[in-house]
Amino acid sequence: MSLYQQTYRRWQQDPESFWVEAAAELHWDAPFHTAHQGDRWFLGGHINTCYNALDRHVENGRAEQTALIYDSPLDQKLQKFSYAELLIKVAGLAGKLRELGVGKGDRVLIYMPMVPETLMAMLACARLGAIHSVVFGGFASQELAARIQDAQPKLILTASCGLEPKGTVEYQPLLERALLHQADIPIMVLERPQCSWDFRAGQHRWSEGQPVACVPTLATDPLYILYTSGTTGIPKGIVRDHGGHSVALKWSMQHIYNIRPGEVFWAASDMGWAVGHSYIVYGPLLHGCTTVLFEGKPVGTPDAGEFWRVIEEHRVVSLFTAPTAFRAIKREDPEGTFLNPRDLSHFRALFLAGERLDPDTYHWARQLLQKPVVDHWWQTETGWPVASTCLGLGEEPKQPGSPGKTVPGYRVEILDEQGQRLPAGREGAVVLKLPLPPGNSPTLWNQDEKYHQVYLSQFPGYYNTGDGGYLAEDGHLFIMGRLDDVIIVAGHNLSTGSLEEALAGHPAVAECAVFAIQDDFKGQLPMGMVVLKTGQQDTPQLHQELVQRVRDEVGAIACLKQVLVVQRLPKTRSGKILRAALRKLADGVEFPIPPTIEDAGVIEELRDQLRPYRRR
Question: pTM of the prediction?
Answer without folding.
Answer: 0.87
